[in-house]
């Protein structure tokens, strides 16, 4: 009896120690997702050690003049595509005087402010490359990893209880030269967009840009100011939207809203598609500009304020996909030929890989279908490895990676559970087989709906906003949450990681949006109050009154047939009941 009691006590003590001891977590990469991972570890009383191969934080947002170190960096003129209120850390808003969309240097300053405010820099080992991450012999019991790193030629080995991979999507340039016959005959300059930094050196040259994503559009527009001519080749076409929407407000804040998400779920897909295309063509007809989506291709959207104007002015010429290259020219699929091309720039994206992982984990992690909620590999019996930031969303990647990190750290602590690996592998394998047989569409390369994905992760953590409850407790806040922009602060209103400043951040988000615009104030006291003012003041009371009227109306319609049966035709009664 005494031995049984001692064994039980020992087990309870071990369980207690597992939950109370600080677990060591290796964070690989100190970019946007790496910084949030460090902070989330600290929030959950974990011990992070971050390994960063460069000499500074920020990942691709840290501009350098060259890319000789093989690390992908932004080009100097890059401007963010998501406005500051929609793409900030959920408990650290941008300063109010920061522009809504900012150049890379300004955004990097924000990352630096974030790291300094939460004292994250002391947890980062710079100029340190991760060589290998392998399971410990007792992994099935402990979930621990052996991590080998190299710093200035010196190898080091350490044991970690968990690992967060934050190396990002933009690791290896994708340069599909084999898909372009004759490219090796071409005598001009060939480069990938990873090598592009500034427009110097392209003056008076004829430049062909291959690939029309955000990068392809940006580079084509910038070079159009100095090059003799820019040709922009695309296989698929794209929808082009501006950073500013109706009224001049940031398009993200006007479009990414819960009420729009609700409408999209209710409307038939054909109606939704028609409505979206009608809205996108309102600014300019994409067919007239050679930008319309090729039949049978997946629709995509890029953000570019100037591309339509450049096409209109003739400084950028749209072309179909390239069929073949000669020494100095390109033959296109539509039979046209462009002569005397000096430079070809491939903006054909990137591939990501994990050279420090061992097989079969290395290959499995490159298949998004085998990542549970795009975070946890399905084949691990212990959920102590998290892939942070390997997502493509219709909204802010920064906000998405932060929520991933919040969830992952709570899983590491045992506070959130995920299904067993056997079940996850069976589901993923079955899905893969159905895709291979053509019975299921492969959506792994598609962008995920921002609000749906964020809500899904937030539900796992317990931080998804309860909108109906908010309408009862705080109508003003609920109005902003449901009808206003879905800013990251919404995921700090309740549950684990609740931030006391979240409510105020939501209610003042438009103040921070308009602040940097108001650099010239012209007093005009005669100007009447705007409609938005009245909506903010009376919206919530009107909504509640409407709900009460609806409830009363439904009761009234139920009582009328009973009281006035003989006086109202059966036809009308049937309509009311229907």
From TrEMBL:
InterPro entries noted in UniProt: FAD/NAD-bd_sf, Flavin_mOase, Flavin_mOase-like, Flavin_mOase_4, FMO-like
Keyword Oxidoreductase included in the entry's annotation: yes
Catalytic activity: N,N-dimethylaniline + NADPH + O2 + H(+) = N,N-dimethylaniline N-oxide + NADP(+) + H2O
GO molecular function, one term: N,N-dimethylaniline monooxygenase activity
Keyword field contains Membrane: yes
Compartment(s): Endoplasmic reticulum membrane; Microsome membrane
This protein's UniProt keywords: Endoplasmic reticulum, FAD, Flavoprotein, Membrane, Microsome, Monooxygenase, NADP, Oxidoreductase, Transmembrane, Transmembrane helix
Enzyme class (EC, first level): oxidoreductase
EC numbers, comma separated: 1.-.-.-
Protein's membrane topology: Single-pass membrane protein
Cofactor(s) named in the record: FAD
Cited Gene3D superfamilies: FAD/NAD(P)-binding domain
GO cellular component: endoplasmic reticulum membrane
Stated role: This protein is involved in the oxidative metabolism of a variety of xenobiotics such as drugs and pesticides.
Annotated family: Belongs to the FMO family.
Protein name: Flavin-containing monooxygenase
Protein species of origin: Balaenoptera musculus (Blue whale)
Lineage: Eukaryota, Metazoa, Chordata, Craniata, Vertebrata
Gene name of the record: FMO4
């Amino acid at each position: 009896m005494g031995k049984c009691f001692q064994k039980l006590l020992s087990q309870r003590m071990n369980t207690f120690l597992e939950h109370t001891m600080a677990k060591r977590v290796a964070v690989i990469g100190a970019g946007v997702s790496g910084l949030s991972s460090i902070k989330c570890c600290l929030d959950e009383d974990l011990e992070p050690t971050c390994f960063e191969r460069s000499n500074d934080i920020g990942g691709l947002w840290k501009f350098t003049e060259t890319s000789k170190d093989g690390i992908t960096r932004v080009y100097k003129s890059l401007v963010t595509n998501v406005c500051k209120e929609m793409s900030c850390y959920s408990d650290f808003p941008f300063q109010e005087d920061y522009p809504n969309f900012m150049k890379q240097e300004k955004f990097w300053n924000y990352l630096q402010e974030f790291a300094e405010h939460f004292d994250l820099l002391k947890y980062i080992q710079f100029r340190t490359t991760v060589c290998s991450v392998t399971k410990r012999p007792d992994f099935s019991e402990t979930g621990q990893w052996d991590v080998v790193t190299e710093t200035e030629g010196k190898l080091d080995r350490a044991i970690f209880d968990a690992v967060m991979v934050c190396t990002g999507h933009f690791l290896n340039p994708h340069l599909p030269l084999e898909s372009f016959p004759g490219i090796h005959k071409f005598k001009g300059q060939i480069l990938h967009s990873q090598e592009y930094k500034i427009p110097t050196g392209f003056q008076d040259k004829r430049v062909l840009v291959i690939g029309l994503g955000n990068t392809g559009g940006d580079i084509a527009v910038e070079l159009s100011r100095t090059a003799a001519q820019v040709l922009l080749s695309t296989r698929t076409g794209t929808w082009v939207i501006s950073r500013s929407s109706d009224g001049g407000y940031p398009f993200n804040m006007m479009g990414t809203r819960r009420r729009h998400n609700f409408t999209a779920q209710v409307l038939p897909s054909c109606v939704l598609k028609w409505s979206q295309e009608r809205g996108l063509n309102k600014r300019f007809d994409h067919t007239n500009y050679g930008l319309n989506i090729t039949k049978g291709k997946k629709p995509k959207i890029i953000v570019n304020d100037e591309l339509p104007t450049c096409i209109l002015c003739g400084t950028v010429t749209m072309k179909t996909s390239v069929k073949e290259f000669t020494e100095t020219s390109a033959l296109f699929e539509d039979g046209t030929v462009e002569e005397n091309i000096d430079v070809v720039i491939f903006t054909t994206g990137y591939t990501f890989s994990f050279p420090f992982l061992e097989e079969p984990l290395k290959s499995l992690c490159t298949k998004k279908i085998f990542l549970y909620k795009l975070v946890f590999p399905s084949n691990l019996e212990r959920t102590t490895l998290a892939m942070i930031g390997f997502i493509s969303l219709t909204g802010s990647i920064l906000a998405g990676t932060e929520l991933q990190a919040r969830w992952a750290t709570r899983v590491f602590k045992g506070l959130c559970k995920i299904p067993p690996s056997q079940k996850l592998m069976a589901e993923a394998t079955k899905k893969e087989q159905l895709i291979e047989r053509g019975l299921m569409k492969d959506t792994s390369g598609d962008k995920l709906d921002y609000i749906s994905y964020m809500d899904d992760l937030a539900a796992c953590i317990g931080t998804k906003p309860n909108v109906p409850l908010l309408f009862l407790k705080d109508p003003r806040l609920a109005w902003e949450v449901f009808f206003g922009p879905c800013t990251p602060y919404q995921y700090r209103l309740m549950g684990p990681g609740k931030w006391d400043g979240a409510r105020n951040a939501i209610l003042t988000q438009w103040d921070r949006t308009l602040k940097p615009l108001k650099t010239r104030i012209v007093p005009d006291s005669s100007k009447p109050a705007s409609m938005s003012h009245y909506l903010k003041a009376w919206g919530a009371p009107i909504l509640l009154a409407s709900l009460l009227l609806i409830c009363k109306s439904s009761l009234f319609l139920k009582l009328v047939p009973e009281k006035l049966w003989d006086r109202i035709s059966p036809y009308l009664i049937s309509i009311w009941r229907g």
